[in-house]
Write the structure tokens for this entry.
Amino acid sequence: MIKQRLVILIGFSLFVLACRISIDAFDTPPLATPIPNLPASATPLLVQPTPTPVVILPTDAATPTVVNVPPLTVEQLKNGRFELPGADGALHTVQFQSGLYQKGTDPSEPGYVAVVMTDSIAFGDLDGDGSSDAAAVIVENYGGTGQFVSVVAFRNQGGVPVYAASYFVDDRAILNAFAIYNGEIYLDATIHGIEDPGCCPTMPTRQVLRLWQGALVLASFSSQTPTGAERIINIEAPANDVQVEKIFTLRGSVSIAPFENNLVYKVYIPGNSEPLTSGPLMVNAPDLGAPGTFELPLNFSASGYSGPVRITLSDLSAADGSLMALDTLFVVVK
């Protein structure tokens, strides 16, 4: 299922050098260049959607009622009041004014907080209810040099933005492109590699995020080697968002075989932050670093579980355990 995502994400790299944005909490960055080669149905960046009719089926009537949900606006987001989890681990009530929030005036004093909602804002349906939601890139500073970059998702509740979930990207990440398409958030970001100093991230990544069971989770992640080759994990079967039997086999491929030919798999179910099960997954590859394939048999019969499942396959750095590639399967076990 990553192939369609790759068609979209490959277009990001064509504009990386031309549209880099260095994010600075004290100097709101310019608007990111829209991602090229997106289908016409995509809504990148600040494109304002038209109201989406949401069909409501009353319990006592067969005729549906159509309600026009007003679209969210940049003005609402940049002047909204939200409770946001911060990079410091605390929950902050943030009242934006023109995209800015600041608590305290001296960055050297304890309790100082500065939050910027950048101009990287995208609109599109993230939760499948038919109304247009939003995602925004914010930057936090707590004094010092850290500029903590996150993606925040907002649900559209009757035309009002409501915080849904957030995902931390990196300290001082460089955002190259940002959009919503097919219910997922796409970003091209340069983050820190193993040997990068704090000031200067150099590792190009392509990331896809999805709202799942109240959390903003990675749907896919790819990065580049020092020679420019891209590390990609591609789950080819079963397809995303389908029902599967309690016993099934996950199949796919990798562009570069991982260290010792081992990926890591994790199986998540709703209501649990820890995986239901996890372990190594052997990749079949003809040589070190060559393309390879994998199969993962899964059996939910013993657990008796039925419902949504999220299965991640990761390529982790042997040096420090950092993520180098990931793909995710979202299915419903019958």
